Amino acid sequence: MKIACTFEKMLPLSELKPHPKNRNKHPSEQIDSLAKLIKYQGIRHPIIVSNTSGFIVAGHGRLAAAKKLGLKEFPVDWQDFESEEQEYAFLQSDNAIALWSELDLAGINADIVDFGPDLEIDLLGIQNFALDPAEKFNAMNEWDGMPEFNQDNLKPSRQIIVSFKNDKDVEEFAKLINQSLTDKTRSIWYPAVERRVLKDQIY
After folding, report:
1. Whole-number Å distance between alpha carbons of 182 and 170
2. What is the CATH number of domain 9-102?
3. Residue 127: strand, helix, or coil
4. Exposure check for the chain: N or C terminus, fewer CB within 10 A?
5. Domains of the chain: which residue ranges?
6. Chain segment 165-178, per-residue pLDDT in tens
7. Model's pTM, two decimal places?
C-alpha cells in the first residue's frame, strides 16, 4: 500500500487501541467508501495516538478501513496532550468540526467537466452524489453558428377599451368588424390577425 503522509512509525493493527469514549459511529457504507479511497489514493492520513492514554484519538474509521483492506499495519503519529480533558476535547472536536462544513455540490459538478469521463464519482467520497447533466450542458452553446433571427414587433401601437351595454351590441359590433366574438373573448386585433396555437409549436 502506497503511503503518502508523514508518520512516526508503522504499527501493527493489533496494537492499535480504539478510544473507549469515541462517540463517532462509522456505518459500513462509510467504511466501504473509505477503503476504496485508501486503495485509490494510498494512505494520506496517519492514525493519531495519544501519549497520555495510548488510545486512538483520530483515525478510528481509517483503522476499520485498513482491516477491511486486509492491511497488517498502518502509519501512526503520537501526540501529547496536557490533560485528559484536552485529549477528550480533541477526540470529539476532530469528529464534530467537520460537520460544520457544507459542500458546494454545484461547484463540484462544474469542476468535474474539466476532468473528463475517467474520474469515478465514488472517488469523491460524497454520499449519494450524482452528476447533474444540467451543470455540464450550456444551452447557449447550442446557438453557435445559427443564423440571426429578427422577430416582428408584435406589440400594438394603440389600445382602446370598448364597453357594451348588452349582448345585442356585442353582436352588432362583431358584424361591423367582421370578427367572431364569444363569451371567452377578452381581446382582439383589428384588422384581424392569425392567432398562434402554442400547442402546435411544441416539438
Report:
1. 9
2. 3.90.1530.10
3. coil
4. C
5. 9-102, 103-131, 167-201
6. 998 999 999 999 99
7. 0.62
